[in-house]
Amino acid sequence: MSAPVSRGILGTGIEEGLLLKPVTYQWAMDLYDQAVANTWFPNEVQLGEDLADFERMSADERQALTFLMSYFNPNELLVNKALAFGVYPYVNAAECHLYLAKQMWEEANHCMSFEYVLETFPIDREAAYASHVTVPSMAAKEEFEVRFIRRMTEQTLDITTIEGKQDFVRNLIAYNVILEGIWFYSGFMVALSFRQRNLLRNFGSLIDWIVRDESLHLKFGINLVLTVLEENPEISTEEFAAEIKQMILDAVEMEEAYNRDLLPSGILGLNADYINTYVKYLADRRLDELGFGPHYGVANPAKWMAAANDTLQLVNFFESINTSYEVNARQG
User: To which protein family does this belong (predicted)?
Assistant: First the structure.
């Protein structure tokens, strides 16, 4: 009996995607293997060693860290809802399901990592939890995501239609390219900037591992978007392309407002203008990866973040930087 013929990456049949081999989308299988190799746990980082640094940081610096935790913590869980309700049910390749299952575990692990930060540092958890609702710029970003994720959770897409396929791509752009690929990376840069000044070095290691996971999430999402567009060329109208690009440009404006609230007075070596230049650089990277070409034309102001951003060179990045940690790393 011959193997069933693949009908593309999109599909909702329960009986589809039950056989892993032959693998149709090798990029998904490769990302799953890398994700498994990257498995880590928060308590492997000795955050308590950073307490002395936290105590000698300025009030503005501690507030910035609290602000980041306020944003990251609920949004890691929000991503899981997007994956569970808006992506997993509509993808029929077994290798994609494997990767998405690992990604959902990683998002949970990231949430627990930020809880570990809140438990270790003397941060007012109640105030941190409240900020994502009470700070208008943070709430605006969350409402943008919730608007798309609500469509995922409360509506069933008919992905046999052009509109349904376009909705699937819209949702991917909202949570993967914008939330994970721009907004999260903006926060990662701020979090890692402390280590540039020899502060919170163990916290920086925790963020490194989260960035490593998120780089794969981004790579998977970009590949998924491009595969859907390649297999369904009828959805790639000029109007749809313009809409997707405008979503990303609108997201940059929301992030700019958020960063002005994050650092209203600036801290040593970092202010809102610096971060927002980095945001525009990130947006240009994502636009380019989606085939639009850059919009802002700005240089990367944080050259030290280059390795974390280079989603096109992930394998080289991991081989040169992270093999000492990888689970079951090959011995040369």
Answer: Belongs to the ribonucleoside diphosphate reductase small chain family.
Res 1: pLDDT: 35
Residue 268: the pLDDT is 67
* Local structure of residue 181 (DSSP, 8 states): I
Residue 328 lies in a domain: no
Domain that holds residue 93: 26-321
Q: Which amino acid is at 313?
A: Q
In a domain, 12, yes or no: no
For 91, which DSSP code?
A: B
Contact 228, 162 (CB under 8 A): no
* H or E element at residue 169: helix 162-172
The pLDDT value recorded for residue 222 is 94
Q: Are 118 and 50 in contact (CB under 8 A)?
A: no
Based on the structure, what is the number of domains in the chain?
1
Q: Catalytic one among 88, 116, 129, 325?
A: 116
242: phi > 0 → left, psi -120 to 50 → alpha, else beta; which? alpha
- The CATH number linked to 305 is 1.10.620.20
In a domain, 6, yes or no: no
Count CB atoms within 10 A of the CB of residue 270. 22
Residue with tokens 């710029």: 137
- Known active-site residue 296: no
Among candidates 133, 211, 223, 238, which has minimal Cα distance to 177? 223
Mean pLDDT throughout 191-212?
91
Residue 313: its pLDDT value, please?
Answer: 39
d(CA 302, CA 277): 9
Q: Output the six-digit token pair for 87.
A: 């992506």
pLDDT digits (tens, 9 = 90+) for 244-269: 999 999 999 999 998 888 877 767 67
Instruction: Verify cis geometry, omega within 30 degrees of 0, for the bond prior to 22.
Output: yes
* Averaged pLDDT score across all residues of the chain: 84
Q: Any residues with CB less than 8 A from the CB of 79 and at least 6 apart, and which?
A: 107, 175, 179, 180
CA–CA gap between residue 305 and residue 218 (Å, rounded) = 16
Q: Which residues are CB-neighbours of 251 under 8 A, at least 6 positions away? A: 144, 178, 182, 183, 283
